[in-house]
Design brief:
With about 230 residues, the protein is of the alpha/beta class. The longest helix has about 35 residues. The relative contact order is 0.17. Helix 3 links the parallel strand 3 and strand 4. The protein has two domains: about 40 residues; about 170 residues, Glutaredoxin (3-Layer(aba) Sandwich), CATH 3.40.30.10. About 40% of the residues lie in helices and about 15% in strands. This is SCO family protein. Keywords: Copper. Pfam families: SCO1-SenC. Belongs to the SCO1/2 family.
Length: about 230
């Protein structure tokens, strides 16, 4: 009886092992498929934005409506190398934009660390640049920005940290990038500008996305949207 019983046990055991291997394989395939889906764009074309509520406008890229849509105006600021930075610096570039200050003890460091992820993801991509505006330009001189860049591994000419005229920077942030969320509360130059938002700007200077610079899933979506925008411009 024992000689007959042991083979049966081995057969049952082999069937169970085979079942567990198949189950693990199926789970692995499902997980990989889930990851693949998450890396695709949400829509055929990213929306366009032109005001503080960030209501999406579904416009066909290259259309007359797109050409007449809100654009970020020209500016003249100075980066960590002491170079003058204007819109010409970003001609034919996709740009990720934010506002920060080097002495920020809280969220700015988290924002910088998340922006570093963007820098690393597109480090060798000549189409993608990063632009960070100091909201304390009287403190964040060229030398201070240079030290900050060195401290956090910011790549010169890939990621521009800029200082300049406070009024110009605040006007860009509030009137053109629409970065502050406290709608309904008028602000003037004396009111401090600070936001955790990242913005995605296309090659034609249009706002194509807004993202929480402190949120991991939002940063992941930004990376996906940058890749979608690159395909759109081909």
């Amino acid at each position: 009886m024992k000689k007959l019983y042991r083979p049966k046990i081995r057969v049952v055991f082999s069937v169970i092992v085979l079942f567990l291997i198949c189950l693990a394989s199926c789970k692995s395939k499902i997980k990989k498929e889930h990851i693949r889906i998450k890396k695709t764009a949400r829509v055929e074309h990213l929306p366009f934005f032109n005001e503080k509520t960030f209501t999406p406008h579904w416009i066909t890229p290259g259309s007359d409506q797109e050409k007449a849509f809100h654009k970020i105006p020209d500016f003249s600021l100075t980066n960590q190398l002491g170079e003058t930075i204007t819109q010409k610096t970003f001609d034919e570039k996709i740009v990720v934009v934010d506002f920060f200050f080097t002495s920020c003890p809280g969220i700015c460091l988290k924002m910088t660390n998340n922006m570093i992820k963007i820098q690393e993801e597109f480090k060798d991509d000549l189409e993608l640049l990063i632009l960070s505006h100091s909201v304390t330009p009287s403190i964040d001189s060229v030398s201070v920005l240079k030290d900050y860049a060195s401290k956090y591994g910011i790549i010169d000419n890939k990621w521009h940290l800029v200082t300049g005229d406070r009024e110009e920077i605040y006007s860009l942030g509030r009137d053109h990038y629409f970065v502050e969320n406290d709608l309904g509360e008028p602000k003037n130059l004396d009111d401090f500008l600070h936001t955790e938002n990242f913005l995605l700007i296309d090659k034609n200077k249009h706002i194509r996305g807004i993202y929480n610079g402190l949120n991991r899933s939002s940063i992941a979506q930004l990376i996906v949207d940058i890749k979608a925008l690159k395909k759109e411009s081909i």
